[in-house]
Design brief:
By secondary structure, the chain is α+β, with helices and mostly antiparallel strands. The protein has helices at residues 47-52, 57-60, 66-70, 137-152, 191-199, 203-217, 227-249, 299-318, 322-333, 336-351, 361-375, 379-386, 400-414, 420-428, 438-451, 455-463, and strands at 17-18, 29-31, 41-45, 81-83, 86-89, 92-95, 101-108, 114-120, 135-136, 159-171, 175-185, 251-252, 274-275. The structure holds adenosine monophosphate and magnesium ion (MG).
């Protein structure tokens, strides 16, 4: 977004907080303060991210600054607020809002980019609905690990600046150590933010929010005569591209409620998410997703469903004539599957080392996915194996069905003008060698949460930092799925 003048001067440790969201109509936010915690202690701090934000990473990593990231003493220029929003959760409409999070402000980086700085787990707010406003250490570390892994995988995502232990217990099914996550996002504006304003039938707030979001995330479209339609088109394109990237990396978000879909096109809210090991379209990990609404292969359709809720919210701005508004919005929403397919097919071609589109490519890619589904081959490792020059004599590749496919693929590669080396390099740039393996994430979180042992977490973070470096593989345990005798992986909407 173009930064409105005057830009605040940097204050101590590089904070340069601005507050464009706070200037939106009052129905969208409530000024609120964090509840101080007893014994703040930094558990992880993301120095490279701090530096990119223009912050003094070394100074902020000092123990005496932990209180800043726990909400005890907010940085200079902060004006904390809780954001109002609603959302469709598993299909049902609910009024939500930040029940345990506060936006401190928007950090303006030295390059002039604007990022929300949010504390998650900072105490109750007027939106808490009976919750304690707190978060447990395990789930906050989980968000840290997975969001940083997504970033390393070049998938748009919110980032994690710090996890700070509170020194206080939180009471869930068991007593757990409490923590606050410092989240960095292009913004926290969600489909549910629009649903909230639309439900209130507040036309003025709806228009202000629409223009703010367009200006902030899609400034090149902000001059449009049809801003609501333009915003919908931009978000649809961003989400089509985002969901394609999830599918290409084997990511299952797990709780794609409309309040967990950001208008910026970043992945947001890491709860019960996980990565596929064995490839299967029907995979769900979340214990609460009993009907597979948010199963791996359903993600594109759910994204389209969520975008339809955004479109409904925008109807009053699209056209004063309701029929014309519905027709225009519907026509756009119907474009989603083709836009998604466009991104997904392009991504699959890159994963197979193909530079240009040929009519048989989709079928070729689909045959591989079908073979993986039947054999339960590991998603990441299958593509990693294809990106190396190996003989495919070991399981699961020692299979005539695979070899028949492999011959077809090689024949297709041979038709390209690019050399075999070029396509290998192309594949290596699109197929990660490593993802955060579910069982290793779990092990690292348990060690940190139950035994205050951060070593496994630090090893995991180091292993997933450069997933496209095929020449320096992380140690073997980071490359393998859980042993076959391990029970199916389940995730919980841990809070
Ligand atoms: P999340 O699981 O963080 O996406 O949260 C979904 C909704 O529940 C949001 O409105 C949160 O603010 C609210 N929520 C989750 N956990 C708590 C908690 N411990 N206290 C208050 N509100 C919460
Ligand atoms: Mg959420």
């Amino acid at each position: 977004m173009t930064t409105p003048l005057p830009v605040p001067r940097p204050s101590a440790n590089g904070w340069r907080l601005e507050h464009s969201y706070a200037r939106l109509p009052e129905v969208l936010h409530v000024a609120w303060k964090a509840t101080p915690v007893q014994e703040p202690r930094l558990v992880v701090f993301n120095k490279p991210l701090a530096a990119a934000l223009g912050l003094d990473a070394d100074a902020l990593a000092q123990p005496e600054n932990a209180g800043l990231f726990a909400g005890n003493n907010p940085p200079e220029g902060a004006a904390p607020l809780a954001q109002a929003y609603a959302g469709h959760q598993f299909g049902g409409f609910t009024v939500l809002g930040d029940g345990r999070a506060l936006l401190l402000g928007e950090q303006i980086t030295p390059a002039g980019t604007r990022f929300d700085i949010q504390l998650k787990g900072s105490g109750p707010t007027p939106f808490s609905r009976g919750g304690d406003g707190r978060a447990a250490l395990g789930p906050m570390l989980r968000e840290y690990v997975i969001s940083e892994a997504m970033h390393a995988l070049r998938i748009p995502t919110t980032r994690s600046l710090a996890v700070t232990a509170t020194g206080e217990p939180v009471f869930r099914k068991e007593t757990l150590p409490g923590a606050v996550l410092t989240r960095v996002a292009a913004s926290h504006i969600r489909v549910g933010t629009f649903e909230w304003v639309a439900a209130r039938r507040d036309a003025q707030a709806l228009e202000a929010l629409t223009l703010h979001t367009l200006q902030r995330h899609y400034p090149e479209r902000a001059a449009s005569d049809t801003p609501a339609l333009e915003l919908l088109r931009a978000v649809l394109e961003a989400q089509a591209s985002l969901i394609a990237r999830w599918m290409l990396a084997g990511f299952v978000h797990g709780v794609m409620n409309t309040d967990n879909m950001a208008l910026s096109g970043e992945t947001i809210d890491y709860g019960p998410c996980a990565f596929l090991d064995r490839y299967h379209p029907d995979t769900t990990f979340s214990s609460i997703d009993r009907n597979g609404r948010y199963a791996f292969a359903n993600q594109p359709a759910v994204a389209q469903w969520n975008l339809a809720r955004l479109a409904e919210s925008l109807l009053p701005l699209i056209d004063t004539d309701e029929t014309r508004a519905v027709d225009a919005a519907t026509a756009l929403i119907h474009e989603f599957p083709a836009r998604y397919e466009h991104h997904h097919r392009a991504g699959l071609r890159a994963k197979l080392g193909l530079f240009h589109e040929d009519s048989g490519d989709h079928q070729l890619a689909q045959s591989l996915l079908d073979w993986m589904t039947l054999t339960g081959a590991d998603h990441t490792n299958t593509f990693r194996a294809l990106s190396s020059e190996q003989a495919f004599r070991e399981p699961p590749f020692a299979d005539p069905v695979f070899h028949e496919w492999h011959a077809r693929w090689k024949a297709r590669l041979a038709l390209q003008s690019q050399s075999a080396t070029d396509s290998l390099l192309h594949m290596q740039a699109h197929n990660p060698v490593v993802i955060p393996r579910n069982h290793l994430v779990e092990e690292a979180l348990t060690a940190a949460s139950d035994h205050a042992d951060l070593a496994p977490l630090e090893r995991l973070l180091a292993a997933i930092a450069n997933p496209f470096d095929h020449s320096a593989l992380p140690p073997a345990p980071f490359l393998e799925p859980a042993p076959p005798e391990a029970p199916p992986y389940r995730t919980f909407c841990g809070t």
